[in-house]
Amino acid sequence: MLIFISYFVCWFIGTAIAAVPGKSHLELGVLPPTCERIECPIYDRIASGKDYEIRRYSSAVWMSTSPINGTSFVDATRTGFLRLFGYISGNNSYHKKIEMTAPVMTEVKPSNGPFCNSSFVVSFSVRKANQQDPPPAESMHLQRWGKTYVAVRRFGGFVSDMNVGKEAEALSASLNGTEWLDAIKKSHAGENTTLYAVVQYNSPFEFLGRVNEIWLMFFDQKDQSLTAA
């Protein structure tokens, strides 16, 4: 329980801290140190290029909040984290405490205009031990990923409302002219704006060695995509 409280305090207070400068790009191809301490989803690295890599997640499971509408990524992530922290602390139908995992993923569906709300869904990875029967909870839903591909850009420092869009654009730019960008466009055909995810591996009180990622999810037309249980 002390671990839960410590992590909670770090996230709740730390997300209010202004962004601290960090490397705009970090080395890909190695697991973040956080994943040596707590459980992270397993993936296969199937390709890489300048400033990006392509992963395949075959069986990731996420517990996710209902959509949070707003203009601030930081505020929405804090709100979603508090809901998920309550969930793993026992505020679920089984009244069961669940170990923390990494990363915290915030899916972002951008607005169509500068003064419109975006939609944010915040998720924790579900531990393997809990994946068969994760406790349900009000205003939460389960995402079971089939074979899902992810284009990834990694960056350091703190994530802020100022740098989220910049890092997402940098990932798109690095994919220009590749087969992967074509696959992403096909997967998101018909959408007004492209959904992407911001993934954070560290407590906000870890000032050095921070690891964050931008994800663009896509799928092979023959494969199952993201599904809600």
TrEMBL record:
Family statement: Belongs to the HEBP family.
PANTHER family registered for this protein in UniProt: F3F9.4, HEME-BINDING PROTEIN-RELATED
Natural source organism: Cuscuta campestris
UniProt keyword terms in alphabetical order: Signal
Secretion signal, residue range per the UniProt entry: 1-18
Signal listed as a keyword: yes
Protein known as: Heme-binding protein 2
